[in-house]
Structures are given as structure tokens and as C-alpha cells.
Amino acid sequence: MFDFSSGSPEERGIPSKAVAAFERRLSEHGVRMHGYLMLSGDALIAERYWPPYARETNHRMYSVTKSFTALAVGLLVGEGKISLTDPICEYFPDKLPPGGAHPWCAETTVEDMLTMRTCHGATTYKAYGGDWVESFFRVEPDHIPGTVFAYDTSSSHVLAALVERLSGMELLDYLRRGALDALGFSRGAYILKDPYGVSQGGSGLMCTLRDVARCAYLCLRGGTFEGRELIPARFMRRAVGNLTPTDLQGTQDERCGYGYFFWMPRERGFVMYGMGGQLALCFPEADFCLVTMADTIGAPAGLQLLYDSFYDTVWPYLKRTGVSAEVKKPFAAPALSSGRFTFYENAMGWKWVEFDPEGRELRFETAGGPGKLRYSDAAFVPNPAFPGTGYPCECRGERKAGHFLLHCYVTGEEQGHVSMDFAWKDTRLGVRMVSTNEPFFRHYRGFASAYLE
Asked: Could you please report the per-residue DSSP string of 355-398?
């Protein structure tokens, strides 16, 4: 049975003092660590656990589970049981409302689910009060799918249900058969189920730290293990590729992009990311992975401190000469469609929007009245007032991957900011906006969709 070899940090070009500095930095910042390991090639070069946790402890991995669910979907694709372009509703006719699915739900594809570009702006089952899977198909959508990023755990839960429905097996058992058994994944691992018997494919994985490392090891090798392609290589390349901008997320290490239930880190690679400090930071060019388990749930800054502690101490010593990584081209800048986009009814109260890329101006009307904002793609441009306020602001725009992103900061007696993400799909667009809590930003929080007149 496969197992990792043992090695020292120095053998892989990392001073032991850098690993010690990583631990010391975490302690100084009060980050509640449960365990970590560092994997270089097939060698464990550092590993530590804090009581009551140990090497054999099954630990809740939260949203790391999503990456496992993505791999299971890859197995379905490899077996020809699904296509990524399939509408998800086709597989759940029994979960649809009596009158049929909402049109935006009906056009949502498997790939939309994997990239967190569904028709929902939030996890549907949390407020539904019933069948978790059914909630995805019955809660009213708030924007066109395949456009903007919105973190929606119900998408991964539905895909877990899809895997179980088509394979006739529990999610983890299907993964074991297809990939994990070959890697020596522990037999005691399991996935918690929802109240209706479906594996919680978005947050329920209970396994050891080394189990996560085994899965990361496979992903670092593009889904191939000992010459066998366990996960289809083409699927794997896209799974860990930078497919969707995530610039409106709240923290630095969530703004670097997203693949198929894998996050992109600030340096080239990919991340399995779970709430509370459950991480597998993978860097193919260095053939290196840091896997952690922790509890930062009550200390939101703790996760950022965990990232920073690694990048400040160990990262500078990694030799990026290992497994070749596919070079990711910068996001392409889309052409901003001319003409007026009229909004479907939406909670934000937006009526229409026009883009003027030559004049670097966004013109629009909300329930609060008309407005316009000037911007540059190189620097922040002063505006005399943010619409609906008497306060000056400054704005910067950016185009990438079919998206136009606008960031605005109020600079007067009141301060705050608004970020807007416009993403095109055929002659329509989806919009996501986030803002600080000032009352004059009430029309700039949420999701909406529009069509070209």
C-alpha cells in the first residue's frame, strides 16, 4: 500500500529554522492550530499535532469536502455518465417545483455548479426548512447562471447527490473505488449526511490530515498515480485552473480566482479550502503542499494569519523546479457591449446600465435615481460625488475573463466602498455588488441580471 516516505526540510532546500519560524509565528498570533504537515514530492518533511488531536484523528474538513466532490464529478465525466454542459435539472426531475424549474435554474449546467456560478447568491438549504437538495431547485433564483461568482454550498451538495444518484454508491465509497484506495486513504474516514441521507458534499468530510495530503498528492500530479490516470487529466487541468474571478471576496487569499471547487492562491497553484483553517495549499512547480487543520472560526483574522505565516517563513525557500505547472495566461479583457441593458426585477432596485469604455464611464439608474461614475483601468479616478450622496469618491475599473469590475471608495466625511462585478453571457449579464453598510449604499448590495435592449 502506498505511503509517504520520511525526509527532512533540509533535504528539500528548506531550513528547519524556517519551519520553526512558521510554528512560532502561529503561536505568537494565537492561531489555534490542531495540526499541520508539509509534503515535498512523496516525502513528509514536517508534521505536528496539538493535543487532543493526533495523526489518527478524524477531523472535520469543512469545505475541503467540495474539492473531493469535484473529483467525484470528474470520475463521472471519465465514465461517460455526464457532460459538464448538462443542465443539472435533467438529473433531478423529482426535485423540481410542480410548474417546472425557473428558467435561470433550468439553464444552470454542471460546470456552472462546479465554478460557483449558479443562479443563487447564497446557500439555498439554510433558509429552506426542508430537503437540502430540493431547495436548490425550488428557491427563487436571483441572477443568470454562468456569470458572476457566488459562494453557494448547495451547489456542491447537489453535485454530491448527483454522484450518489448515478453511481449507486455513497460519495466517499465512489471516490475510494475510483481513486482514493490506491492512495492508501484511511478506512475510518467518512462524510456526514444531511437529514435526508445525502452525503454533505460541501462540508461533511471527516478524515485525517494525511488523508487530505494523499488527495492533494494526486491533484499535484494531475490526477495520475503510478502511471494510472485515476481522474481524467483534462478535467483535472480545468479543476485546478483559474476559471472565474473572485475579486469581490472579503479577504486577500479569496480574491485570486476559482476553478472547480478549488481556490487559487496568491502564488501559482491551487488550494483546497475549508472553514476554520482546513487547508491544502498546493504548488505544482515546487511539488510541495502544506496541509493544515485548525480552528479559526471564532477569530476571522486567524485564517489570514495562517496564510501569512507560511508565506513569510517557508515560501521563500521553495524551489520551483518540480512538477511542471501549466502556465496560466492572464484573464482576457472582454469587449464591453454598447447599448442599454435593462434589468429584470431585482432586490437592489437597478433599472438600467450603460457602459462607455472609450469615455471610461458607467451610466445607470437605480430606484434612488440616475447616476454615473468615471473610472480608469490604471489608477483611481476622482468623482465629485457618489450617486445619491454628497460625498466625493474615486473609482477604478478592470476587465478580465468576461467580467468588468468596478471598485469605488467614498472619500468625504463618510467613508466606505462599493465593488461591482458585471459578467456577460450572450446578450445578457449578471451582476454582483458588495458594499460596506452605509445606508446610502443600499442599492449596491446583492445580485441582479439584465438584458440588452
From this structure: EETTTTEEEEEETTEEEEEE-BSSS-EEES--TTSS--EEEEEE
Pairing of strands 33-40, 43-49: antiparallel
Q: Helix count (H) and strand count (E) of the chain?
A: 10, 21
* Angstrom distance (rounded) from CA 288 to CA 185: 19
Rounded CA gap, 269 and 242, in Å?
Answer: 9
CB 365 within 8 A of CB 371: yes
**Those residues with Cβ within 8 angstroms of residue 208's Cβ, 6 or more apart along the chain or in another chain:** 55, 56, 57, 58, 59, 186, 189
Cell, residue 340 = 442599454
DSSP state of 62: B
Asked whether the beta carbons of 32 and 294 are under 8 A apart, the reply is: yes
Taking the C-alpha atoms of residue 323 and residue 212, their distance in angstroms, rounded to an integer, is: 19
Q: Is 88 helix (H, G, I), strand (E, B) or coil?
A: helix
Q: What one-character-per-residue DSSP string does 166-235 give?
A: HHSS-HHHHHHHHTGGGGT--TT-EE-B-TTS-B-TTTBEEE-HHHHHHHHHHHHTTTEETTEESS-HHH
Identify the CATH number of the domain defined by range 5-317: 3.40.710.10
Tell whether the torsion through CA atoms of 162, 167, 171 and 175 is positive or negative.
negative
* Cell numbers at 75, concatenated: 470520475
Tell me if the domain spanning 340-452 has CATH number 3.10.180. no
Write out pLDDT tens, residues 67-91: 999 999 999 999 999 999 999 999 9
Q: Would you kindly state where each structural domain of the chain is located, as residue ranges? A: 5-317, 340-452
List the one residue out of 306, 282, 299, 310 whose CA is nearest residue 64.
282
pLDDT digits (tens, 9 = 90+) for 289-344: 999 999 999 887 889 999 999 999 999 999 765 544 444 444 455 556 678 999 99
Q: What residues form DSSP beta bridges with 406? A: 397, 420
Beta bridge partners of 419: 407, 434
Written as nine digits, the cell of 49 is 499535532
Residue 319 grid coordinates: 524551489
Q: In b/e form, how buried is each residue of 428-437, taking b as 16+ CB within 10 angstroms?
A: bbbbbbbbee
pTM across the whole model? 0.95
d(CA 442, CA 153): 26
